[in-house]
Amino acid sequence: MHVRETETNRATILSVEGRLDSMTSQSFEQQLMGKIDAGNSKIILDFGNLDYISSAGLRVLLMGAKRLQSEGGTFVVCGLKEHIHEVFEISGFLTILTVLDNIDDAIGTTDI
Amino acid sequence: MRLKKVFTLDNQLSELNRLTGYIESFAQQAKLNTKDTFKLNLVLDELITNIIHYAYQDDQPHQIRLTLIFDSPQLTAYVCDDGLPFDPTKISKFDLVSNLKERRVGGLGIHFVREFMDTVKYKRLDDQNHIQLGKTFSGM
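YS: structure for the whole thing
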């Protein structure tokens, strides 16, 4: 699992490659919550190169989303591969998170 | 086509990488597509992660046995551990609460198992948990 960070003046983009499972989700949690702790209130997760996510990974997303919601920030996920999209659907995460198809739409939503 | 493979994993999260390798190799031989391979990996990951987290109260190493049988188009998976009794079929239906604030992730792993597998069975035998999963793949 590898996370690439891109800071723009609109949002922090975290591009996650590889797998988010019970092992890798721990370090992802540290990275994501670290960004939020540091004051980044507009976060986009680009999952275009994410191949796998389990409930451990979804738990981290939920943590981040709840935290940002309570602080008035924005949290958007984009670029889901088809099988990852299905996991989001089955778990109800399409309803509770902001999930968009592509990164440009995601950047657009942070223009509030 | 009939395939049968038996794998043992230690009760460590680091074993999940080996699990993925086993599943990918098995799925390749069974000619499963990417999506079905992913779902099989996810389901077994969730069950085995649960076992690693919750099944044992000692610091001793334990082994988890995974058996995969493919009799095209039917897949049967057995997960067997000697931990505390745990029946996944008794977990209540997952609550798809529709707002972020109230949402929890507890129970999501078992939810995936039920959604992605056709059958889930459990028995407790000789101080071991035996989970049996069944899936018929279409288009084979």
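YS: worth flagging: Chain A has one domain: 2-109.
IM: good catch. Also Chain A touches chain B at residues 19, 21-23, 51-52, 54-56, 58-59, 62, 65-66, 69, 82-83, 86-87, 90-92, 95-97 (CB under 8 Å).
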